[in-house]
Design a protein that fits this description.
Length: about 325
């Protein structure tokens, strides 16, 4: 799942590096490619030669430096910042109050389940990065927080929230493995959310700059997944088949999601997501090829249980 999350998002980074939409004539223009790859070079150079705090914010510095350089060549327009107001309180239910709509509810439930499957991969990736074993309670809290965030997003006129895969790459590169910086960032973002000029300032970052940073972060996520896969016994043919088929199906669906265009909309929502297809394939194939391994822990528990050693208890 983690490998697929990273590698299926790398094309998104390349699309942004080229300028955003592949339909426009300026897509892939030399200026876009130059500033996008310059962003990558700056991030890699800071990681290679800087130390301490500067190294931990390599991605942020790469985006800022590349944006300033792009601005010097006329690729940044500050008009949105000038037009934005200084202070604004969000208006609850700006687009209308909630209404019951059965089909919309089913669709959003499927979307939420899809994002939660992706989030599961992110949780495990963060667990591997931080070296902290993830528990069932941790997963519950993560899903619960994501659900609450989606509700708040609806109230405050924005999209349902989900975990961002690129943040795993940020955590890996920055070395931040505690929650305290996350708390500070959360309060800072809440404050900036009341300042439209700050939000407008974030939108003027050139798309190729963001694309360059994305390629670095998504690549890190994909490699993180490969590192975790190395812990499995891939010399075992069944494990190799599970991994190869799951990744192959996930990447295939990502490249050609229209393969399911003749299915129902609900089915397209689920099967059109490479991460979901990968995770479903991994679980099903693992049950098919390795079903005997799932019985071993249960058998060992029965064998080592002193109660089962008593023939009378066994008979009962």
């Amino acid at each position: 799942m983690i490998t697929i999350i990273g590698f299926t998002l790398v094309p998104v980074g390349f699309q942004n590096l080229g300028g955003g939409s592949a339909a426009v004539k300026s897509f892939g223009a030399p200026a876009n490619l130059a500033i996008g790859f310059l962003t990558i070079v700056i991030i890699l150079a800071i990681n290679a030669f800087a130390k301490g705090f500067v190294k931990s914010i390599a991605i942020l510095l790469g985006i800022l430096i590349a944006s300033f350089i792009a601005g010097a060549f006329g690729m940044v327009s500050l008009t949105p910042v000038a037009q934005a107001s200084w202070f604004h309180l969000p208006q609850i239910f700006y687009f209308g109050v909630p209404k019951y709509n059965g089909s919309a509810i089913v669709t959003m439930m499927l979307v939420s389940l899809t994002t939660m499957i992706e989030s599961t991969g992110v949780y495990f990736a963060l667990s591997d990065v931080t070296g902290q074993k993830i528990t069932e309670d941790d997963m519950k809290r993560g899903y619960r927080a994501e659900g609450i965030a989606a509700i708040l997003g609806g109230i405050f006129n924005t999209f349902p929230y989900s975990t961002f895969s690129q943040n795993v790459g940020v955590s890996r590169m920055s070395g931040v493995k505690t929650r305290k910086p996350v708390y500070y960032a959360a309060f800072l973002l809440l404050a900036l959310g009341l300042l439209p000029k700050a939000g407008a300032l974030a939108t003027v970052i050139p798309t190729p700059v963001l694309g360059g940073a994305m390629i670095v972060m998504f690549g890190m996520v994909g490699v993180q997944g490969i590192q975790i896969l190395q812990k499995a016994d891939l010399n075992k043919n069944s494990n190799l088949l599970v991994a190869s088929m799951s990744i192959g199906l996930g990447l295939g669906v990502t490249v050609y999601p229209q393969i399911f265009q003749h299915l129902a909309t609900e089915a397209q929502i689920i099967l059109g997501n490479g991460v979901v297809v990968c995770s479903l394939a991994a679980v099903i194939l693992n049950l098919i090829f390795n079903w005997q391994d799932f019985k071993k822990p249960v058998q060992s528990k029965i064998k080592n249980n002193p109660r089962t050693a008593d023939p009378i208890m066994n008979e009962n």
